Every structure is written in C-alpha cells, then in structure tokens.
C-alpha cells in the first residue's frame, strides 16, 4: 500500500493562497524523519505582497468598531476549536510534541487567546486626564485645558515566532494585535509553519477581512529579514533566540520600528535551605518538568536547580529517580512523556553541550547518551551535577531535556548564581517560608518569578530582564504592547 503524498502549502496573502515563485521545502516529522508536507519558500517579493496587503487593509480594520472586531475574534476561537481533529495531528507531526502536549497545550491555548482578546477588543482604550488651568502664552490663549491619553493601533505588525509552540505562540501575538486594530504579517519558524499557514483560511471563514492577516514561510533567515527590513512594517513582535533578537533589534532600529521581543531563558530554581516535605517534592517535580514538558524546548523551563549544599545529594537522588521513570519515545504513544527534539541539528547541539560539560568536569548523573530509538531526533532526560556557575551548561540556553544542578552555601551566593547569566526570563523560589521567598524574588533580575510553582497566571505581564527580551505582553498588557499612546488635548 503506497503512502499518501505529503501536501504542498502556499503563502496566505490578501485573503487567498499565493503560490511561491521560489518553490517549496520539506517539513520533517521529528519522530519519524518523514516528510509531513512542503512549505512555501518566500522571496522578498512575496514578503512585499503580504506587507502591501496588510497596509491596504489597515485603514478599514483599524476603524472597525471594537465590538465587531471582538465578534470576529470569538468566531476565530470557535473555528480553531472546531478543526481540532485536523489541526492537532498536524501540530504533532510537525513539532514532535507528545500526545498530551499537542492535545492540551498546543491548540486549546490558541483558541483561548482569541477568546481572551475578543474581550480585550472592548476594553477601555481612553485614559481621561483631569483638566488643568494653563496660563496664556505666545503660543495660545490661556484657559482650562482638557486632555485624554488614547491607545491607538501601531499599524502593520510583523509577527515572527518560534518552533516550540507554533500555533499558541502565534495566537498570543496575533490576537491582541488584531484586537487593537492592527493588521498582521506572520512569519512562523522554518521548522513547523504548516498549521500556521492554515490559519489564514480559518480566519477568513470566521469573517476576518482580506489582508488583515497574512502568512509567509521560508526555510532560512531571508523571509524574516525581508519582513523586518520592510519600510511598510511598523512593529516586529518576535519570540526566539537572543542572538536572532539582537539582529532584529539592530535591523528594526534603522527604521525605528517598535519591537516586542521574548527571547532566551536560563531559569533558576532556588531551593532554600530546610525546605522539606511538600515543598521539596514540588521543587523536584517543577525542575523535572524541564524533561517532561515538550522535551525541555521551552524558554521558561527551570533548567538550573540551585540547592543548598546540605540538601544537594538528596535532591540529586530524587531528580535521578524521577528522570529514570520517564518514558522516552514515539510522541504518538500516549505513554510517552519525552518526545524528540525538533531537528537533527538541535539534537546534535544539545549533545555537544552535554559532552562539553563532561569535558569541564561535571558529573552526568543520568542520561547523556543517545537513546536507542530510530528514527527520530531523541535526547534522553539528562541530569548534570557538580556544575559550577561558570560552566557553559550553566550559562547558555540549551533548549533540550537537560537539567544542571549547582550547589550553594548562602542565600546571597544563590542570588548571585541565579543572576549570573545574561538571561532573566523566569526564575523560581521554593521555600516553606513564603515571606522569605517573596523577599528573595525582589533580588532576582528576572521578569517572572514563581514561588513554589511553575504554573503561569494568564493575566500577568510576560517578558524578560537583560537579554531575555524587550517589552511585555499577556492579559491587558498585550493590548498595551500592540498600541501607541496618543494624547488628545482641547479647551474646556
């Protein structure tokens, strides 16, 4: 029996499929190494067509009544949910996510974000300011002057997203951008753009006007670079590596584009001394989520566990036992917890970090060897102990199922170690004393701090300190991120 021919996809521009002049490239299933489909290869002309479509649609969409924008976003959420049976298998095939992650954490959050920003579209966008008496001047007569600060859409937003959660990540950008009246050109990650390309057709069926949302894809950096450089783009919203973020910031600066960037992380989980019982168990489970949650391909993961020397070996033993109980294998199997990494290149990169840690004198407690699983791009859950803060694995983002353990002697030392990387996205504190954990959080140079949990709150402002990003989104802060403040002044 012959296998079905993998489908070929096109760009979505101005409400219709747009065939690429430069052809297509293959999207590979990380678990089977088979071709899932063929994505379109964007040229500068394709990017220009998408930006021009978004620019032409901006006036009409930005002037659409907020309640009408809200209705469209609600219908988009319903349409995404209604096509779950089609979208979830495709998401799983192109990302390598386990069944649990694909079904619960890939598609549902995307629909939820459109529902959230349907409400956001009708949130007040006017901040009234108290009238002020102003004296006459050569500029104008005096009097009582009234004013308001009003949030206005930025314009055309280029959304460039990462490969780990393609649909949810893009929804987190597009939904608030559309709610505020912006138009969008989306550029998904090269490794898994197929589900995102289907969004154009879904959005049109939900009633989104042509040109308001466009999607282009490409196998390398060229499409993203063309989008960032395009003079018709007013803002770039990017999620991905710090290195690429710096390049985008530099290129955006040439035309003074607004930027929102969520970049890399090197999360520290600080286990404070004498934490015991439920708190210590919670700390172990939280750190182990680095292995269990999408094979460590998440920027907020607690990839460094910082433990007081008196409890260090106890925590190492507990983590090793946890890792040993995790099933690595085919993500389609419901019993699998740890699936493949996105590509052979990423697998090789993570393996090189592990080898480098050995060479620097660290102790690989568990994992560290390639699993006997073929085909697929697998890395075993790996725990590296006896790590010093200056080692490469303690400083750089690996983006794989690897946890490094660092011992400390004092709280001051723990804070110094936690703050001692270029990153500052998400850190964690585990303690029986919530007040002590709260006080320690204030010393962490991190945009987010979890106390005794790795759970997220959907309304918090999300972003990073230092090289982990610029700006904040999430909740109503996402509406702020995709808007400009305009002051309107009048004589009372």
UniProtKB/TrEMBL annotation:
Top-level lineage group: Bacteria
Instruction: State the EC number(s).
Output: 1.2.1.3
Repeat listed as a keyword: no
Keywords associated with the record: Oxidoreductase
Q: Do you know which InterPro entries this protein is assigned to? A: Ald_DH/histidinol_DH (IPR016161), Ald_DH_C (IPR016163), Ald_DH_CS_CYS (IPR016160), Ald_DH_N (IPR016162), Aldehyde_DH_dom (IPR015590)
- Show where the Aldehyde dehydrogenase domain sits: 17-488
Q: List the catalytic activities from the record.
A: an aldehyde + NAD(+) + H2O = a carboxylate + NADH + 2 H(+)
Q: What family is this protein classified in?
A: Belongs to the aldehyde dehydrogenase family.
Q: Which PANTHER family match?
A: ALDEHYDE DEHYDROGENASE, ALDEHYDE DEHYDROGENASE-RELATED
This chain's protein is named aldehyde dehydrogenase (NAD(+))
